[in-house]
Structure formats: structure tokens, C-alpha cells
């Protein structure tokens, strides 16, 4: 019983990380209709900002600074690049791919490929039956839940959330009401940077990170965004929980070397049943 509880806990933790990455992807796609392949680099920025800053500063100071740095980077990337590609999907795709390759090589030159770890809470507690669980994993789950809940409130109750949802539903109709897709795109990238930075810091607190860590989570972020339905925040949350639990249970009781097979297998099954994703009930308009 304790072994199953530990496996489920690991699955929920992974689901939280996938949700943080996937939500950022689906928010930016909803406004710009561009799949941002460079989104994983925001995760890497958050992870290495935390690792670097905690070498010189205390964790309570380093964490908000690392998060702020990631948000600023995301905003700058939008302002100097993606802002000019709205309405031109091919140009936006080319820019995001080029930025991803440039950033990955830059991070390798800056930090090498040697795995690094961030600060973490030491100690464990025992589940029923004696299985030990690290407090750092519990913290990751708590932070993921709090950040996702905060973003949900932002989307439902604030004028920023209203603007994001309006442009995501129909940016042409939103424009007639005075909402600029380019301005709202900045809001989307700021929120996406916040989510990705949080994911990067959480990853660095429980596992070694390299300049390629963001790319690994980008792939999973795409999987949950597609399973849930591109543009659907609710779909991303459900898909993240599904994928996290499927990976954890399969890795524990079947074969841990086939994690990617489980992820893409789940995506294929869902798309065969619901080609638009679980929660995507509208066609995405081009233009």
C-alpha cells in the first residue's frame, strides 16, 4: 500500500510540473496561435537562475530574483520577436525554432552539460508502511498547486484574464472591442514566463538539471497541451494529471525505460478518440 502511495505521489508531482509547462504553452498559443518551441528555454532559465543565484544569495532572496529574471526574459523575447510574428504562423514558428537552438547552445557554452542541482529541503517523512518521501517533493506539489490555482483565479477574475480569454476565443472579435492582440500577447508571455520559471526552479530543487532540461519538459508540455486541446487550460490540467499518473504507475510496475512510449502512446489513443483534444471544441481560425 505504501509503495502505491509513493508512486501516486511521484505521479502527482510530475503532473504539477507538466501542468506548469503546458499551461504556459497553451496560453501563448491561445493568443498568438503560434507553438513556441523556445518555451522550454524559459524553464532552463528559471532552473539555472536559481542554481546560480543560490551560490551567492540565500534561497529566500534567490527564488524571487530567479523568477523575476525568467519573467523579464520571456517578456523581452516577446517584445523583440514574437510581437512581430502575430498573424504570420510560419514566421513565428521559424523564430521560435531558431531561438530554441540559439538558447540551447548558449546555455551549453555558459554552463556546460554537467548536471547541477539547486537548493532543496533536506529530510524525509514516512508513509504508512515505512516508505520515505522527501519533503522537497511535497514542496514541489504544494508550489505547483498554488501557482496553478493563482493563474486560474487570474484567468477567471481579472481584466488580464478576461483579455487573454477573449483573444484566445476570437482575437478578431476582441479587436473590435479595443483589445490589441499584440498587447495581450505580452500578458500571455509574462504569465507563461512565471509558470515556466516556477517549473524550472521546482525541477532544480528535486533533480539535477542541464541546459537540455527545458527541451525535455517542452516535449512533455506539448503532449499535455495536445491531449487536453490546444488553447484549453482545463484540458492541460486534466491531461497533466493523466500523464503524470500513467508515467509513474507504468514506470513502477511495468518498465521505467519506456516513459516516452507511455506519453506518446497516451497522446495517440486520445487523438484517435478526440482528434481536437479532450477539451477543444472549436476550430482554430487561421490568420
UniProtKB/TrEMBL annotation:
It holds the Pfam family BPD_transp_2. Keywords: Amino-acid transport, Cell membrane, Membrane, Transmembrane, Transmembrane helix, Transport. CDD domains: TM_PBP1_LivH_like. The chain crosses the membrane at residues 6-30, 42-59, 65-86, 93-114, 134-155, 186-207, 219-246, 258-279. Its main location: membrane. The keyword Oxidoreductase does not apply. It comes from the Bacteria. Belongs to the binding-protein-dependent transport system permease family. LivHM subfamily. This is Branched-chain amino acid ABC transporter permease. It comes from Thermobifida alba (Thermomonospora alba).
